[in-house]
Fold this protein.
Amino acid sequence: MRQMGIGGALLFNTEGAVPRGPVDMGGGQWRSLILYTMQEARRLQLQITLHNSAGFSGTGGSFVPPHQSMQQLVWRTVEAVPGQGQHHIPQPFTKLNHYRDIAVLAFPEPPVPPLLKLWLNGREENPAACTDQDPETALRLEKTGEIVFEFGEESSFQSVTLWRRPEVPPDVYDGPPDSPPTFQLESSVDGQHYSTVCTIVMPQLRKMNAPGAAVFPALKAKYFRLRTNISTWLSEVQWHAHAGVDNWPGKANFYQHVARSTIADRTEGGIEKRQVLDLTSRLQPGGLVQWEPPAGHWTILRIGHTATGQLGASQPDAAVGLELDKFSREAVDGWFRHMDDYLFNALQPYTSFRAISNCAPGNMLVKIGFARPVVHPCVRMPLHLR
């Protein structure tokens, strides 16, 4: 390299369908070879740039614990029972056995009738498959199929939220990691004659359980029919009689890019901020909340965060690990402490890593990977809610 006039090299450790070799990234032999590389680079006046982590555009590793990995908001709702002073709100959906509460809120909202029956391609299914608030349970909806929701009575509706499971390709190196569908929602009062309500464009999924949502003009219906343009898994559907925030999943950073669903220009009947009550201090171990609701129909919301389970992209087999939560100072500091002890301190004689703007030949730059994340700043969220 020196004789040919090449100034240095970038050491970038990725998997890329390359068979596993004799030296594992992150192992003792790999570390020794990195140090030897730096010694030779200094002797030959070459510059080495070392990517900080395994895989593409990320920062993580096998040593990142779930509580310091990328986080996502999760929640669970229950209807408050009038005259009852104690309510149980189960823990929301959890990944990697990690969950932390953020807040418990209560707010009044107009009720929707219970879901009486659910029909998949004319076959009756258990309604709990789409109402259990668990994104892992799902119904398979084929391109030519349909799901019909039958409620106990005709009622008013203004918004809907849908969750699904990702459509993973047979070959992870062939095509996108997920193929999102577009749903067509129709309504009916008699189950025979349907009218188009809206189109719901679903986001592409990776590890975060990102919902799709739509707000539409208030309508009366007893039946809803859902169709899709491609086969998909439908895991949860939540119906509301009030209007929601336009494109709230996108505004909450559940996804990066998605076409806007067709909605009404004007909707009415949303939940006012002044009506929301903070019951966080009333939450007891096990999910019990001591609170008797005022008159009216009230919903209790338990919101927290769990790991997304996102691994670094294209990591070598020996270095597979969780992606770091860059919104957490504790997580980032912990990552640097680990890397200082394992590698960076040993590289100090060969690099001006602590002042990388003045690197001379033979020194090392560390490339910090930080692609735009789909992640929520959950750890400090309680402070922002106050």
